[in-house]
Amino acid sequence: MSDQRHKPVPVIDELTRPFWEAAREGRLMVQRCGACGYYNHPPRSFCDVCLSRQLAFSQLSGRGTVYSFTVMHQRDVAGFEEDAPFVNIVVELEEQPRLLMVANLPGSNRETVRVGALVEVYFDNRGDGVVIPQFKLVSA
Amino acid sequence: MWSGKGRTAIVGIGYSEITRRPQKPLGLLAVDACRAAIDDAGLEAPQIDGLATYPEMPFAGAGNRDGEDVVSVMYIVNHLALAPDIRWYAQIETGMIASPIIEAVHALIAGACDYVLVWRALHRPTRRPGGGGGTGPRAAGEAQFMAPWGCSTIIQWHALAWQRYMYRFGATREALAALALNSRRNANLNPRAFFYKEPMSRDDYFNSRWIAEPLCLYDCDVPVDGCVALILTRAEHARDLRHPPAYVAGYGQNTAPRRTLLHYALDDYIECGGSLARKLWTSAGLGPREMDAAELYDGFNPSTLYWLEAAGFCKEGEGGSFVQGGRIALEGELPLNTFGGSLSEGRMHGMGHIAEAVRQVTGRAEERQIPGAEAVCAIDGSPMLRGSGIIVTKAP
């Protein structure tokens, strides 16, 4: 990835603050329902499954698999114009089916990435207090 | 079966120019299309007493100036000399293109009005300074979980879904090539199509540039300015107009799955699209085998494949082989996107699909005519997000 300063920055709100603060501390935390155990991501003000408001943030292992991936060639994405072609993956986290997060892989992974590949979280400090979870390929 | 089957009909079609270099603003293109539709029906503008549209912008943040970026009900009220008192109107914000048509059908059956004008005007947005698709430099709301990684445009979401589809079912790009080539052949017979005069070869398809891999340029619709308009009325009025009526036999709309981070996570497409298809077939008392052609939305090429499966034209995962070997050609078993689709006619968000279904069952499909076409369905949207569809028939 080239110049990090022009990447879109998250506008942190009440609901999402714990996710971003945890990232700054190097932890992957996702909102979880205290009543039914469902992980809600993005965070919500009540559980999407059981409507409970007993929600708290819970730490994940940071391991998952590649649910899908794409290589964006069009210089058409805000903040990523100079990066094209760049790789996006969607990670399915091991804690729950369809608990998904997006991430980037380096261009050098373009030919090797496959759906189902194992990935692991790391944290990318973009400066100005913005730390974003990223994922990298790991061997089994 | 639905009690409204055959009680209303589409009786007029109007197109503006469909172009990437518009000589006039969108509002005037919409006026052109609306006037053409009224004339095609053999009506006079003051007879139009109902209006409906779906004015959504092509993507969030594309601008919403009335008459420039969108064309609202009030814009048409103020710029066409219609009935002095419009008796009914609707401006739909959910569903998709067939949704305002479905509302018009309800209004006609309820006796709220007699002649409804429905249109969809689409503007090709210009790129914003400092970045095109997605959000700007600050990502608020749910975009904060997509935009910081640059995963914020619709084509990337479609590319992710298609990659997942290929993984699940072992499909290849040959399926998308078959769809794109079929659409281009049909567009070459459609004088309104953006690609009317440009054939495409298999090599052209495979040599085209990537947009969001594994989707290439020719897997995307053609962004254009233009408007398509339709006229609807009740069956008793429909019989005496200029052209034969296309009766509305049935309809359906999607219910969406529980949201995940991705709008287009593939795994829901059968369940979600099936929620539309069950209503579509049940309301009309018809099934996929009875369709003489299918006009299935292709804002991005894979959507057509997903609809083929979700609507029951073939089994889950078999769309890729279904579209090969000539089955979907004009002379095949299931002629598909017979007018060229959004891929080759231009991005009219599904209105072109509905207009073509009308042309086919009324014998007005020019060189593309399917002999003896009695029933054709048009479905818009993407099955895993939202959509709407109708069936039109030659007989009430």
Entry summary:
The complex is a heterodimer of chains A (140) and B (396). Chain A is mainly β and 140 residues long.
Write the layout of secondary structure elements.
The complex is a heterodimer of chains A (140) and B (396).
Chain A: E1 9-10, H1 17-24, E2 29-33, E3 39-40, E4 55-59, E5 63-72, E6 86-93, E7 100-105, E8 118-127, E9 130-137
Antiparallel strand pairs in A: 2-3, 2-4, 5-6, 5-8, 6-7, 8-9
Chain B: E1 8-15, H1 26-41, E2 50-53, H2 73-79, E3 88-91, H3 98-109, E4 115-122, E5 138-139, H4 154-169, H5 173-187, H6 202-207, E6 210-213, E7 215-216, E8 226-234, H7 235-238, E9 246-253, H8 269-284, E10 293-296, H9 302-310, H10 319-322, H11 341-344, H12 351-361, E11 375-382, E12 386-393
Parallel strand pairs in B: 2-3, 2-4, 10-11
Antiparallel strand pairs in B: 1-8, 1-9, 4-8, 6-7, 9-12, 11-12
Helix pairs in contact in B: 8-9
Written description of the protein model:
The complex is a heterodimer of chains A (140) and B (396). Chain A is mainly β. Chain A has one helix and nine strands; from the N terminus they run E-H-E-E-E-E-E-E-E-E. Chain A has two domains: 10-59, no CATH class; 61-140, OB fold (Dihydrolipoamide Acetyltransferase, E2P), CATH 2.40.50. Chain A has a five-stranded antiparallel β-sheet, with helices on one face. In chain A, a hairpin with a 5-residue loop joins strand 2 (29-33) and strand 3. The longest helix of chain A is centred in the first third of the chain and has 8 residues, at 17-24. Chain A starts with 8 loop residues before the first strand and ends with a strand. The mean pLDDT of chain A is 94. Chain B has a single domain (8-126, 222-393), classed as Thiolase/Chalcone synthase (Peroxisomal Thiolase, Chain A, domain 1). In chain B, 30% of the residues lie in helices and 17% in strands. Chain B has a nine-stranded mixed β-sheet, with helices on both faces. Chain B has a two-stranded antiparallel ribbon with strand order 6-7. In chain B, helix 8 (269-284) crosses helix 9 (302-310). In chain B, 58% of the residues are buried. Chains A and B meet through strand 1, strand 5, strand 6, strand 7 and strand 9 of A and strand 5, helix 4 and strand 6 of B.
